[in-house]
Every structure is written in C-alpha cells, then in structure tokens.
Design brief:
Blueprint lengths: L1 E12 L2 E2 L6 E8 L2 E5 L2 H6 L9 E2 L4 E4 L9 E5 L4 E6 L3 H13 L1
Antiparallel strand pairs: 1-2, 1-3, 1-8, 3-4, 4-5, 6-7, 7-8
The structure holds D-MYO-inositol-1,4,5-triphosphate (I3P).
C-alpha cells in the first residue's frame, strides 16, 4: 500500500520523545516488512526518502487506532520494535483501516 498520510513523530526511541513533533504530509509506502517515507509519489519512484530518513522496520511493530488521541480524526499509531512511534492521519475510517491492515500484514 502507498499513499499520502499526515504524520507526527511521537517517540524516537524508548523513553525518548521526538524532537520534531509537528504534523507533516508524507507519502508512505508499506512494503516487505518496512514502511518508507517520501515527499511524494515521484520521490518514491526515484527512491529518494523524506529528509533522508531510513525505512522503519515493521517486524514486531504494534499498529492500532489512536483512540486516546482526540485532536484529529482517523488517526492510527504505529510503534516499531526500535521504539519509534508515529501517529498517522488518514482521510477517513476506511482508509485508516486499510493502512492498519497493510502494516500488520507487511
Ligand atoms: C508541535 C506542533 C504539533 C503538536 C506538538 C507541538 O509544535 O504544534 O502540532 O502536536 O505538541 O510540539 P512545533 O510545530 O513547534 O514543533 P499536536 O498537534 O498533537 O498537539 P506536543 O509536543 O504536545 O506533541
């Protein structure tokens, strides 16, 4: 699965809050037990990642609706085994469910 999502970095490691905590529109690609981030679909095609970020390993990741996050709708959270945690906002419930399923099945 790939497409645009709004992303907020919450944790950059166990007990380490992310320093850049604002929401950004990123193009996300879930593939082969990894999620990769790009500025847009064109950048994804060239393989040039968003701000040079490395892909996030999805093995043993936890992904679910961010029911405790009330400021925005259709938000899900993804916590990777390395302690990175992100919030993602989809455009509606259906899109959110598709992303959660894609992450869990990656
Ligand atoms: C952040 C930005 C985020 C906000 C975050 C701020 O500031 O306002 O939208 O998260 O709050 O730190 P900046 O743009 O200056 O980096 P929310 O939208 O979830 O409130 P936080 O630090 O409490 O997560």
């Amino acid at each position: 699965l790939e497409g645009n999502l709004h992303r907020k970095h919450e944790w950059e490691g166990p007990n380490k809050k992310a320093s850049n905590r604002s929401w950004h529109n990123v193009y996300c690609v879930v593939n082969k037990q990894e999620v990769s981030f790009y500025k847009d679909g064109k950048a994804a095609a060239t393989g040039l990642s968003y701000h040079g970020e490395t892909s996030l390993r999805l093995q043993d990741a936890v992904c679910d609706v961010a029911s405790e996050y009330k400021k925005k709708k259709h938000v899900f959270k993804l916590r990777a085994a390395d302690g990175n945690e992100y919030l993602f906002q989809a455009k509606d419930e259906e899109e959110m469910s598709s992303w959660i399923a894609a992450v869990l099945n990656a």
